[in-house]
Amino acid sequence: GAVVSQHPSRVICKSGTSVKIECRSLDFQATTMFWYRQFPKKSLMLMATSNEGSKATYEQGVEKDKFLINHASLTLSTLTVTSAHPEDSSFYICSARTGGPNQPQHFGDGTRLSIL
Amino acid sequence: QQPVQSPQAVILREGEDAVINCSSSKALYSVHWYRQKHGEAPVFLMILLKGGEQKGHEKISASFNEKKQQSSLYLTASQLSYSGTYFCGTHERRGGADGLTFGKGTHLIIQP
Prior knowledge:
The structure holds 2 protein chains of 2 kinds.
Chain A: E1 4-7, E2 10-13, E3 19-25, E4 32-38, E5 44-51, E6 57-58, E7 67-73, E8 76-81, E9 90-97, E10 106-107, E11 111-115
Parallel strand pairs in A: 2-11
Antiparallel strand pairs in A: 1-3, 3-8, 4-5, 4-9, 5-6, 7-8, 9-10, 9-11
Chain B: E1 4-6, E2 9-13, E3 18-23, E4 30-36, E5 43-48, E6 54-56, E7 60-64, E8 70-75, E9 84-91, E10 101-102, E11 106-111
Parallel strand pairs in B: 2-11
Antiparallel strand pairs in B: 1-3, 3-8, 4-5, 4-9, 6-7, 7-8, 9-10, 9-11
């Protein structure tokens, strides 16, 4: 149980392109989804928290116009990296949780984004 | 505030024990432990919520001190499959944006 699917797993695209990443909870309803960014051999850094039907809450320093988050249903959240540039290249990983902060977050397999 | 994990890396032989520590300068609401293998998603291990709590099983267990500022993960009689990077994720506040703040990770290498 508690499977989170993230798609695509790898994206390579040109600078200026917008890229959408999907995060789905397959066997549970995710009241809250999180988006993290991870640089090679580094820790996961929280970008934003999204609750179904609400606007996402972004961490300090994360541009909300750059990283658009939509959480339209209890099983799907999307992250769109708009007008991506090489510095946006990274490993993006989502997690999903049902219930409050005393519940575990279940992670997707991540998306490796490479901007040329 | 990012929790401090120690050690940064550990190399063990199969069957040896390891302890990984995670500390914060503030009292925490909870501590979550994850293991991540290279190129894969972090896998949930356990959550600790209460001061003085200990949980887990014989092989992998964790504790949370009374002040809720330090947690330790114990790996007993390590197996090759335990290799990976261990992260503690801490939660300081309730409500609102309540994602986890992860430590820098502890790289664990188990050799046969």
